[in-house]
Specification:
The complex is a heterodimer of chains A (301) and B (317). With 301 residues, chain A is mostly helical. Chain A contains 15 helices and no strands. In chain A, helix 3 crosses helix 5, helix 5 packs antiparallel against helix 6 and helix 12 packs antiparallel against helix 14. Chain A is elongated. Chain B has 317 residues and is an all-alpha fold. In chain B, 75% of the residues lie in helices and 0% in strands. Chain B is built from 14 helices and no strands. The chains are: A mainly alpha (301), B mainly alpha (317).
């Protein structure tokens, strides 16, 4: 297929144009200071969490009753919890869970959303109306309520279940975005041209339309990571998500309401890391929006 | 417009049926079930269970059960709570005012704070104030609500002892406006912050877009005072998208803020849902979920209608 296109003479040209477009986007992203700062913070955080066993001398789960509710000190920078475990260590291990939930949930949500949006936008007609009614319906469900129902009935959820349930409840925005961009692109000249040289639906979708709809998908994915992290932490805070002793940023706060008059650090630090991660991701998302959608910037400027 | 509203209302019917059916099926599919409490009781024999199952109509086909539920629901018979044996409609009715009272205050506070800030940041674009506010809004909507609630309790409740830690009023004391208001401060602050962040951002973006329009230059060129240009020409147009956002937030008034109600011990809809979920109280769950999704659908419709009314350029076909 690629050979045919080159033979007609429309092969290499768009490629160079596209690369410079991404280069320009990268330049714009670098100029967005909060976004670069967010990327640095998030990167450092992810690295520290990934290297948790190397960074911390403590075990995240073993109970030390002689160290219950120690305040922050040099040995325990964020103090210890009600079972004498080092809070900083648990935050690092918990970060692995919380950040993975964020990334994996978005992977599920983006995959489903892109698939649904593609089918609805490209094929139109009845698949479109059926799928869009489904989207309307999914939007009308109160998401947190459903999550709580599942959490209660399964008596807490494992990482895998959270990812799947959360992902299946958050694909709708992506589906709408992808559908909208298919609707606006599918009758453009370059798509007609591809069809004229004999490209099949699949190739048109994968090689011609989807790459041109990437920008909104990337932005939605980034912001989706932030909202998934908050959703997971809320769920685990309520005791319905990741179950102790495995730490997650949310379930570390679970006992905070009853302990915070004795040991306020138990309530402060895990939440601070949720906040740090989410604010970084939101800044990155904002930077990506400016970088990928130049019109957005000129309108602001 | 009338025809548009009528058509949207008609479209809402299958949507609602779909949602209630899906909710019904989800509640049927999850493990547990309304008889779980009896199953765990060793003194209840299998024959008793079968009799209960028959009495509750649980042995009939699911489509039949759904239609029966739907018929009763439409005639105002929402069933009885399995835990308290009170009518579902009354239990929801008891809690609803508390949630509307909390969320209505949140709504008001959010708008009162967000609107002036949003307008001012747009007017002073790229000033130190704008940068400060932009940074602050990002922090505001990146803060997990439940964590903010905990922080406020630690600082203002436990350390400064300025506000009570929870509840709607001091138990056992007579009704007192000051006491009521003091109990309102922390939950409202917790719930408002995220909303303020979002609203300021929406308003700033839409103000900036409006300020860039030609008619704004005309208004300024003919010598109108800046206050009138901004207030009458820019804000009124810029507020239209905000109205949509505010309408879409309406269902929140009903479902409330489950987590915040939980932290502050606020006896509202969120707590009712939580209690019902932990006790597998299906009739209550079904009632709350149905009302909540109905509200979402009507809020959507309301948003579109209000938008069309405020902005005559929008014409629905």
């Amino acid at each position: 297929m690629a050979g045919q296109a080159t033979a007609i003479g429309i092969g290499p040209a768009p490629r160079t144009a596209q690369r410079s477009q991404w280069e320009m986007a990268l330049e714009r992203f670098r100029a967005h200071r909060p976004a670069t700062a967010g990327l640095l913070v998030l990167g450092a955080l992810a690295l520290l969490c990934a290297a948790a066993p190397l960074v911390s001398p403590y075990d995240p789960e073993s109970v030390k009753l002689s160290l219950i509710h120690e305040g922050p000190s040099l040995a325990h920078p964020f103090g210890t919890d009600s079972l004498g475990r080092d809070l900083a260590t648990r935050i690092l291990y918990g970060g692995r869970v919380s950040l993975s939930v964020g990334l994996l949930t978005v992977t599920v949500a983006i995959s489903v959303g892109t698939l649904v949006g593609t089918i609805a936008g490209y094929y139109g007609r009845w698949p479109d109306s059926v799928l869009m009614r489904l989207v309307d319906m999914m939007y009308s469900f109160p998401r947190l309520f459903l999550l709580i129902l599942f959490g209660v009935f399964f008596k807490g959820m494992t990482l895998g279940v959270i990812v799947v349930v959360l992902g299946l409840l958050s694909w709708m925005t992506t589906a709408r975005l992808v559908r909208a961009s298919f609707l606006s692109l599918k009758h453009r000249e370059f798509v007609e041209a591809a069809r004229c040289v004999g490209a099949r639906d699949r190739r048109i979708i994968v090689r011609h339309i989807l790459p041109n709809s990437l920008a909104p998908i990337i932005v939605a994915a980034t912001l989706g990571v932030a909202s998934a992290i908050i959703a997971e932490s809320t769920l685990s805070f309520l005791g319905l998500g990741i179950q102790p002793p495995t730490p997650s940023w949310g379930n570390m706060l679970k006992d905070a309401p009853s302990e915070m008059n004795l040991a306020p650090w138990v309530a402060i630090f895990p939440g601070l890391f949720i906040f740090l991660a989410v604010v970084s991701i939101n800044f990155i998302g904002d930077g990506l929006r400016d970088a990928l959608d130049p019109r957005h910037v000129t309108r602001r400027g | 417009m009338g025809r548009y509203v009528a058509r949207r209302l008609l479209q809402a019917v299958p949507l609602l049926l779909g949602i209630t059916l899906a909710t019904f099926l989800i509640l049927k599919a999850v493990p547990g079930g309304p008889l779980a409490a009896y199953e765990a009781d060793p003194s209840v024999t299998p024959e008793d269970l079968a009799r209960l199952e028959h009495a509750f109509g649980l042995d009939r086909p699911i489509p039949e059960q759904y239609l029966e539920w739907l018929g009763r629901f439409l005639t105002g018979d929402w069933g009885y709570s399995l835990a308290t044996h009170l009518p579902v409609l009354r239990m929801i009715g008891d809690r609803l005012p508390n949630t509307v009272y909390l969320m209505g205050t949140v709504y008001l506070v959010t708008l009162l704070i967000a609107v002036p800030i949003g307008v001012l940041t747009a007017v002073r674009q790229y000033s130190w104030f704008d940068h400060l506010v932009t940074g602050a809004t990002f922090m505001a909507f990146s803060t997990p609500t439940f964590w903010l609630g905990l922080l406020l309790i630690i600082v203002f409740g436990l350390n400064l002892r300025l506000f009570p830690l929870g509840g709607m009023g001091t138990l056992g004391s007579a009704f007192d406006v000051g006491d009521r208001l003091r109990h309102l401060v922390l939950p409202v602050a917790t719930l408002s912050l995220v909303g303020i962040g979002h609203y300021v951002r929406y308003l700033r973006a839409s103000m900036l877009e409006t300020i860039g329009q030609d008619y704004m230059r005309t208004a300024r060129a003919k010598g109108l005072m800046a206050r009138i240009v901004i207030g009458r020409h820019a804000f009124k147009n810029a507020a239209i998208p905000l109205v949509t956002v505010a309408a879409l937030d309406l269902p929140e008034l009903f479902v409330g803020a489950l987590v915040t109600e939980q932290i502050f011990g606020w006896p509202g809809m969120g707590r009712l849902f939580w209690d019902a979920a932990t006790r597998s109280d299906y009739p209550i769950l079904m009632g709350i979920l149905t009302v909540a999704s109905t509200l979402v659908i009507f809020a959507n419709l309301l948003a579109d209608v209000v938008y069309g009314y405020l902005d005559p350029r929008i014409r629905y076909s």
